[in-house]
Specification:
The complex is a heterodimer.
Chain A lengths: L1 H34 L5 H13 L2 H12 L4 H10 L7 H25 L3 H9 L4 H29 L3 H7 L9 H10 L3 H25 L9
Chain B lengths: L2 E10 L4 E10 L3 E5 L6 H9 L6 E6 L2 E5 L4 E2 L2 H4 L1 E4 L11 H6 L16 H9 L15 H13 L5 E5 L7 H18 L3 E5 L2 H7 L2 E6 L2 E6 L1
Parallel strand pairs in B: 3-9, 3-10, 7-8, 8-9
Antiparallel strand pairs in B: 1-2, 1-4, 4-5, 5-6, 10-11
The chains are: A mainly alpha, B alpha/beta.
């Protein structure tokens, strides 16, 4: 059953990195969308939300076209840095990050937009710089909403299947995450492995939910 | 001249258009802008503090130009250092009373710690009898207590002037009389210029060294 534990470790690694990327990217982009108006905002919003509604295999195909050896990004990385992303765990991270991006983006944007402007305004008249206001007022007040998106993003990343299989394949020990390992075990008729993997996945998911319940701040915050 | 103000701005929505066109000069250390709600008083105060920008006009305080559209001068709220007390106080819900009051004394990217101590904070905690509430959160405070915290938070930054938006409207009548007296004493002791906006004739009586009556975005009378 060693392969199951290896798959679990890989899944946590991929989901962890993907969530970390979305933590910065999702919150940053959401803040800009919540506070600024710019040309083409609606179209960009639709493009960034696309991964939520598009089949993961289609996303995986797009990714292959972009970061594959002949794709614009893939060719650039290969020529300049001798990096080939396809069939690596990093490709799995990229796939998982893109698929789960809208979850952080949407949650963070809603959290920023629902914030009453008077808190940021009163920090401004108290002489605090815009940058510090983000960390001292905006982020702490929006954090509850953002956190729920981040945890969903972690869950979605660890369950990613379609896009990951397209760009990272199913190499045991390297790119074979739990969800892919379950599929492979069933295909190969190895029911005992499949049973164990499914059990393991269920335990991981329940743990994530329990941890998320603990992380959510319990104190009721009301404004006066 | 203490205040030399001329502000013009047009607010247009689909339903109606509101034109704000207000000019006044005053040397009064207590100035009341009086008028019904919807007259544009809060907008004037926000322009003075720098939270919003007029389309045309100028704002000079103590012969220093804070804003002048024709000269292209527009200082930020942070640079103006005019304290602003919001109608609903806008205390930071995630910070304790003490942290709220100390907010402006700590310029960095993070908020003052719960154990933060500063002689100015102590001074205002004692002055407004907030010592026992220092570690409470805003949602645990009564209206009168919130108002004192908001005032302490504004005064601790040693502002050049203090702007108050309907400071007593959220309180019941019995409290108002006490707090009017308290504010009046503090203002006299610090000898700090103050602009107060209100629709309540009792406030005018207590603070109106000079009264500017505003209606539908225009100055109706200016009584000295």
């Amino acid at each position: 059953m060693d392969e199951a534990w290896i798959a679990l470790r890989l899944t946590l690694k991929v989901a962890g990195f993907a969530t970390l990327i979305n933590l910065f990217l999702g919150i940053g982009v959401a803040y800009v969308f919540a506070r600024k108006n710019f040309w083409g905002k609606d179209v960009l919003d639709a493009v960034l939300t696309l991964p939520m509604v598009m089949p993961p295999t289609v996303l995986g195909y797009y990714l292959l076209v972009l970061i594959g050896r002949n794709g614009p990004i893939g060719a650039f990385l290969e020529d300049n840095f001798n990096i080939n992303l396809i069939f690596t765990w990093q490709a799995a991270v990229i796939a998982a990050a893109i698929v789960s991006f809208p979850l952080v983006f949407k949650a963070a944007r809603a959290a920023f937009e629902s914030l009453e402007s008077q808190y940021e305004q009163s920090a401004r008249v108290l002489g605090i710089s815009e940058f510090a206001i983000f960390f001292r007022v905006t982020l702490p007040l929006a954090w509850r909403g953002i956190l729920s998106g981040v945890l969903l993003s972690f869950a979605r990343s660890s369950g990613e299947f379609g896009a990951t299989l397209m760009v990272a394949g199913s190499i045991p020990g390297q790119t074979q995450t739990l969800s892919i390992a379950v599929y492979e075990a069933v295909q190969a008729g190895r029911d005992d492995v499949a049973n164990f993997l499914v059990l393991l996945t269920s335990v991981v998911c329940i743990s994530v939910l329990l941890v998320s319940g603990k992380l959510m701040p319990g104190r009721v915050i009301e404004s006066r | 001249m203490l205040w030399d103000v001329s502000l013009q701005k047009t607010y247009a929505s689909k339903q109606h258009q509101f034109e704000l066109d207000v000019s006044f000069q005053s040397n009064a250390s207590r100035l009341v802008l009086f008028g019904p709600s919807g007259a544009g008083k809060t907008q004037i105060l926000k322009m003075l503090s720098g939270l919003t920008t007029p389309e045309h006009g100028h704002i000079r305080f103590n012969n220093v130009t804070l804003f002048d559209e024709s000269l292209g001068i527009c200082t930020t709220p942070q640079e103006r250092a005019l304290a602003y007390v919001f109608q609903e106080y806008a205390l930071f819900p995630h910070l304790t009373v003490m942290q709220n009051i100390a907010f402006s004394l700590h310029k960095r990217w993070f908020n003052p710690a719960q154990q933060f101590s500063h002689p100015d904070v102590d001074h205002w905690l004692d002055k407004f009898e907030l010592r026992t509430l220092a570690h409470q959160y805003p949602h645990q405070l009564s209206g009168g207590q919130s108002q004192r915290v908001a005032l302490a938070r504004a005064l601790v930054m040693r502002p050049k002037a203090i702007l108050l938006d309907e400071p007593f409207s959220a309180l019941d009548e019995s409290l108002r009389q006490n707090l009017r007296q308290e504010l009046s004493q503090v203002q006299a002791q610090l000898n700090i210029p103050m602009i107060l906006i209100s629709h309540n004739p009792d406030d005018v009586e207590s603070f109106g060294d000079e009264i500017i009556e505003i209606s539908k975005g225009h100055v109706v009378t200016h009584a000295v």
